[in-house]
Amino acid sequence: MDLKQLRAFLTVTETGNVTRAAEVLNLVQPAVSRQIRLLEEDIGAPLFERERRGMVLTEAGEVLVGYARRALLELDRARVEVGGVGQGVTGLVTLGLLPSSIDMLSSPLASAVAAAYPGIRIRIAMGYAGTLQRWLVTGEVDAALLYGVEQMAHIQTMPLIEEPLWVIGPKNSDLSPERPVPLAALTHQKLVLPSAPHGIRTLVEQACAAAQVTLDVSVETNALSVQRSLVLGGHGLTILPPIAVADDLRGRKLKGAPLTAPDITRTIVLALPTNRPTARAVRCTVDLLVDEAQRAVSSGTWLEGRWRG
Question: Is 239 helix (H, G, I), strand (E, B) or coil?
Fold first, then answer.
């Protein structure tokens, strides 16, 4: 097993196709196929099923992919740190951010890190809370902003921001920030919601159980962009923190109103692993991430956010 084989394996995994992987790796297709074959011989099991729709991971491939990603990530970290010896704080820091906040935080954070610690290189990974939590435990990210985190032995958290969930609808709806909507008022509305076990769906279902309310969920999707598109297209209302569609609310493409009876809130937390040491570069980057989150709340950019850090 060598690094070329692992890179070929991961690239085929991500593209789902040997031809596209060869283009990404700037290799000929037979060379990529050979690297996969050698890796399969070394592992002693097939890593892909060759199907009409592309290359699909086998059970053995699913097991290997996490190890391969971590191995290459550790090598990249080593390259950055060794190359920066004697140059102050250096390192590769991988952060996990939620879809609702990644656009707002990424650019100012990158600018802050470049100005304060030019020897630090950051990677920003987007995922939903459950995915980021898993990546944090396995070492695929160094720190993350999460919500709805259960107590876990290998994660420590610090509350940063509390934000409400709103009912979000198309621009022709009668929703208004000044008129909270009782949860029970949604019982006769078509709703577009994430599917379980998405964190927001869990919060909504807990509130429905407490209020003895049954909602009519017409479409389920775990893609924020699809939720937004379906609401814009008039397929139903949705429930989201206002920051998730802040630009649409400010631009009056969508309308929103706070949920009430009961109020539903989520708390964004900074999460760090406890099953491994936190490098100095990670601590420095996390401090800047917290600063940028606080600045977003105080400036009103983080719509309806309340600072708890």
Answer: strand
Report the alpha-carbon distance of residue 298 to residue 108 in Å, rounded. Answer: 15
φ, ψ dihedrals at 100, nearest 5°: -70, -20
Total domains, the chain = 3
Highest mean pLDDT pick, 24-33, 145-154, 284-293 = 284-293
| Contact in structure between 127 and 135 (CB atoms under 8 Å) | yes
Residue 186 lies in a domain: yes
Average per-residue pLDDT for the chain: 90
The CATH code of the domain that includes 35 is: 1.10.10.10
Tell whether 289 and 252 lie within a shared domain: no
Q: Over range 80-109, report the average pLDDT.
A: 84
DSSP string, 176-207: BTTB-EEGGGGTTSEEEEPPTT-HHHHHHHHH
| Same domain (yes/no): 138, 276 | yes
Residue, of 32 and 149, whose pLDDT is higher: 32
What's the rounded mean pLDDT across residues 20-48? 90
CATH value at residue 227? 3.40.190.10
For residue 249, pLDDT beyond 70: yes
Given the structure tokens 């909507």, which residue do they identify?
181
CA nearest to 289, candidates 266, 269, 265? 269
Per the structure, the complete domain to which residue 55 belongs is given by: 3-64
Contact 168, 176 (CB under 8 A): no
